[in-house]
Each structure stands twice: as C-alpha cells, then as structure tokens.
Amino acid sequence: MQKTVQHKNLTPRQIVAELDKYIVGQDEAKRSVSIALRNRWRRMNADKEIRDEILPNNILLIGPTGVGKTEIARRLAKLAEAPFMKVEASKFTEVGYVGRDVESMIRDLTDIAINMVKTEMQERVKEKAEKVVEKRILDILIPPVTQPSNDSAGFQKDDNFNPEQASDQELNKRTREKFREKLQNGELEDREIEIEVQKSSKAPMMQVFGPQGGMEEMGINLQDMLGNLGGQQKSKRTVTIEEARELLLEEEAEKLIDHDAAVQEALERVQKHGIVFIDEIDKVAESSGDGKGGGGPDVSRQGVQRDLLPIVEGSNVSTKHGMVKTDHILFIGSGAFHVSKPSDLIPELQGRFPIRVELNSLTEQDFFDILTQPKNALTKQYQAMLKSEGVEVEFTQEAIKEVAAIAAQVNERVENIGARRLHTILSSLLDELLFAIPDDISSGDITIDQEYVNKQLDNLVKDKDLSQYIL
C-alpha cells in the first residue's frame, strides 16, 4: 500500500504530444521542458555512482504575458504527477526586509506533496473505508442489539419466520440486513441522520518572523502543538445520508492511511520530482538602463536573487516534516523581460538557468487555433456550461475567425495580454446569452455566427475608451 507511485515513462515526443492537446504553438518551449522531464527518468535509471551528480537543467522562459509560460509548466507537472508550486519572485524580499522568505516556496511545495500523497493513499483504501462508513451509518439507523440471546445461535432465515417468537437480536439482524440492502441500492440517500464528525481544533495561526527560515517553521510547529493540546474534538451534525457518506469517508480513509509513510513518500517525491515555477523573475533583475542607482528597491531585488541562489543551486531546507534537499528539484523561471534582460540577473543565478527559451507573441491564427484545438478551449468550456442548461451552442468558423481578429486588434491597440484577451472578449460576446438562459431561453440550439459577433462587439472595438476598459 505504501509503494511509491511509478511516474509515467513518457518519451520527449510523447510529452510534446500531450502538451499539444492543451497548448497551441511554442514548440521550442515544449521541446525544452519535454527533454527536462525525460532527463529525470534518465537520471533515476543511471548508475548509482553518478546518479546524485546529475543535476537538472533549469529553464528560463522568456516572453510576454499570456503566451502559455505558466500553462506549459502546470501541464508538465500534471503529466509527470509531480508536486508543483507557482510563486511570484516579486512577492519575496531579501532577508531582513518585511516579506516572504524564499525558503517558504519549498515548505509550500512539501505541503502540496503531502496532500497529494495522502489523497492517493486514501484512494487506495477507499473500498475498505466505504465498508466502515456503511457500518457506521447502519449503526445510526438501526443500533445493534448487544444483549446475548439464547436462541440466536441456531437462527436461520426462512419463510415461516414468526416475529412474535423471535428474539430482539434476531429482529435486529433482519432489520439491519433490510436497511443494508436499501443503503447499497441508494434508496435512503435523502434521509437525514445525526452524525458525529471530527472537528478541527487548530489554534489561531501563529508565526514567528525572523531572519532565519527556521524561525518561521517554529511558528508553524507551535501552532500544531497548541492545536493538538485538546485532543480530537467532535461535533454533531444533521445531514443527509448522501452527505454523511462523503464526510465519514474522508474521516475513515484518513484513519486507515499510514501518515508517517505518507510524509516520507512526499519528501522523496519533492526531492526527486518537484517542480517550482518562479514567475516574474525579471522583476527582481536590475535593469541596466533604468537610470536607477544602487540604492532603493534594487538593493532588495539583488538580495532576493542572492537568497534564491542557494535554493536553486541545491541546499537543505528545514520544514516541519523534515529536511528537504533541493538539488534535484526542477526550477522553471519565467518573465517578460521588457525592461530588463536575462543578463541583468546576477551571474551566479544566470548560470543556474542554462536553458533559455524565447516564446513567441500570439498571432491572429494562434488565437483561432487556441479557440478550436485544445481539449479545454474556451469555446468548448462555454458550450459545456450552456449544455448543462439544456441549450446547445455552436460557433461557426467565421465567428471564431472574427473573435480571433478582434483579439489580435485589441491587443495591438490597447495592451498585449496574449491569450487572456480571449477571456474578456468571449465574456462580452456571450454576456446577453448567459444572462437570458434559462429564464428567456430554456432549450434549443443557438448558432453564434459572424453577424452575431459583429453586432455584440462592433461598438466596443471601435470605441477606444470602451475597449480599453471592457475588452
């Protein structure tokens, strides 16, 4: 039960093919991350003598907002079934300033890994937990008779059963069996029962801020210790049997898993498979041409880089679950680098991101592909939502081309926010429809064509002020 999950053994081509299902274009970036992911499998299968010497090639993704940098990293982590953490470099400040300590990203990654492993373990014991939950619900509906019965040992079920002659225990057994069948057939799901559930007894959040990451951990551990002083508290709730199943299943599955093994597996997974995506890394770079001196915020910026360096290089980070070695965690940096350049990062940090990939700005054709090709395309999302209301919506090719053209046009005129522009445009396009369903339109087929797109968006696109604030 506690065996480490075997990660998918995908080749670089297979990884790219999987990423293609969700991300349009950016072939070079997909190629780089697919190699980085496959290299992890290669390292794990290399000779033991050299395995620890093989370090991951961290990646720096360079490109404007909304072109798919975050999505590539997120999909890669999901594909690898790896703990994934996205952080913004600009949220950290140098040790000694008020702000987050860079080591906290590793602590957060560890917490994510532990939740991930526990969820997987709970899934493995789900069948066993379901049987325990069924018994608990049955005990609430028909409490078992505990007193001994002289004639119960030889009791057999037959058609000549006489309730008057049967003992209380026999009656109880028969009734329980009937109710067990009803439970298993889902006949009692709406019936309300009173259950006892464990209540979180955590103390209010306490954290000790100091120059060392360990002090922050001390705050977390104090919180845990104080939270557990009162033991497990329980509260009574009246819920339907359907709701009771969910609440009790989580509680029983939690009891059945080995928490120590979960922590050990999670720590191993973080160290071998963890992925940290550091967004806005360009915001902590000192622009060589911004005219600023060495003081002010730039001191903190460079300090953040120097604090990041040991984490990316490989160091031991103290967490409340144990020490985490960051040597083999894959770091993916990301930034637009409009004002600064990658060469404005401190040389040591530059050297820790050897693979640099420049992502392309999105064209009108890219917008069209984004709206039609991915499995999670926005048009498909809106179709799925409206289908839940009984309304079938179809987008014509001309309508999608027009939306793509408008997105490219608005990005050029107002501000280039990449594919995020499609969210605002489709939201405005379908605003009337989303409001009218289901009150005015409760069923039927609706076709969104080019004429409808122009009618809904023409004025917004022509009016620069409106397009600036609405689109």
Q: What features would you describe in this structure?
A:
By secondary structure, the protein is α/β, with parallel strands linked by helices. Helices cover about 50% and strands about 10% of the residues. The longest helix is centred in the N-terminal third of the chain and has 21 residues, at about 105-125. The protein starts with 11 loop residues before the first helix and ends with a helix.
What characteristics describe this protein?
protease, nucleotide-binding, 5-stranded parallel sheet, 12% strand, alpha/beta, 11 strands, disordered N terminus, two-stranded antiparallel sheet, 50% helix, cytoplasm, Rossmann fold
List the helices and strands and how they pair.
Layout: H1 12-20, H2 27-44, H3 48-51, E1 59-62, H4 69-80, E2 84-88, H5 104-124, H6 126-141, H7 168-184, E3 192-199, H8 213-227, E4 233-240, H9 241-256, H10 259-273, E5 275-279, H11 297-313, E6 316-319, E7 322-325, E8 330-335, H12 347-351, E9 355-358, H13 364-372, H14 378-387, E10 391-395, H15 397-413, H16 420-429, H17 431-436, E11 444-448, H18 450-462, H19 464-469
Helix pairs in contact: 1-2, 2-4, 5-9, 5-10, 6-9, 13-15, 15-16, 15-18
Keywords: ATP-binding, Chaperone, Cytoplasm, Hydrolase, Nucleotide-binding, Protease
Pfam families: AAA, AAA_2
Domain Clp ATPase C-terminal: 362-462
